[in-house]
Amino acid sequence: MDEKPRVYVTRELPERALEKIDAECSMEVNPHDRALTRGELEKAVQNIDGLLCLLTDNIDEKLLELNPDLKVIANYAVGYDNIDVSACTERGIPVTNTPGVLTETTADLTWALLMAVARRVVEADRFTRAGHFEEWGPMLMLGQEVNGSTLGVIGLGRIGRAVARRAAAGFDMEVKYFDHSRNKNFENKYGLKKSSLEEILQASDFITLHVPLTPETEGMIGEKELKMMKKTACLINTSRGAVIDEKALLQAIRDDEIAGAGLDVYEDEPKLTPGLERESKIVILPHIGSASVKARTKMGLMAAENLLAGLKGEEIPNIVNPEALS
Ligand code: DGY
Question: The domain that contains 15 carries what CATH number?
Fold first, then answer.
């Protein structure tokens, strides 16, 4: 009888995903309720056929060198900037991600952040809890109007489109987008306007980022870009932290160059640029864009399917580097 493939899962996942893998593999799961240390990851990656990892695991060339027989790497995320994909491709290792299943969930969270920043929800909650609500006041906690305002979407991929759709269909917003490619059907259906980055920065009341982290997008919103934004504008980021120069953002908030920001992701996650946590105009969340039971279960099942297909040499549903197999 053939031996079962050996698999390591770098963090406890929703049960159904683990059951799926366990049925066909000899599976080991990180026993700790935390990410693996580098040393633990280096140990875990040896003597396995497949790795199911998270965005918190840095899969670089040095790690790959520890196991020349690794057959597949399944990332439990749609983003895969934690993996040196070209090093995997050189070694013929397919890398997979989990697109689609977290789109609507992340778009919902983007909107939760946008509304929270615009209407000062977190600040108002703290104020009320602290017993400061003594009477209704005409000037109490005034924020930015969302309905009918202008939204700038940077990156019109799946999540960018889901955010834009909510804006156009639900909030009567004018939606401008910046992306290298064009999606005319979507544009026409929701009345979107393709714009330059400059135009978006200058004209939008809310700007939301939905680009992957690449050398091109790293630091794309810095001091210069923040200065171009309206003083009443709010910046929302549920993509990857390093797309924004966090120090420049903090300074822009302190100097009242923009009205607020909503962050789910950070430049040096999970560390925050010191001072960020003290700004009431910034709402900060712990990278929970896809954190619904439904989305996380679907992500797990999808990652498991990708992993199993890679191990069996079958067509891999969500491979990001098909050239690895040619
Ligand atoms: C991803 O999938 O890339 C998110 O950041 C976490 O779900």
Answer: 3.40.50.720
- CA of 136 relative to ligand 1 center, distance in Å: 40
pTM, 2 dp:
0.96
CA angle 17–101–261, rounded 5-degree value: 120
Q: Which of 75, 82, 97, 102 to mutate to test ligand 1, by most ligand atoms within 8 A of the CB atom? A: 102
Residue 58 structural domain: 6-99+293-325
The reply to whether 252 and 180 lie within a common domain is yes
Q: How far apart are CA 210 and CA 228, in angstroms?
A: 19
Q: 204 and 232 in contact (C-beta within 8 Å)?
A: no
Which pair of tokens denotes residue 232? 């009443």
Averaged in consecutive runs of 10 residues, what is the pLDDT profile of the chain (326 residues)?
89 98 98 98 98 98 98 98 98 98 98 98 98 98 97 98 98 98 95 98 98 98 98 98 98 98 98 97 98 98 98 98 96
Distance 54 CA to ligand 1 centre (A): 9
In degrees to the nearest 10, what's the CA dihedral of 171, 219, 216, 76? -70
Which amino acid is it at 54?
L
Q: Is 9 exposed, middle or buried (0-12, 13-18, 19+ CB in 10 A)?
A: buried
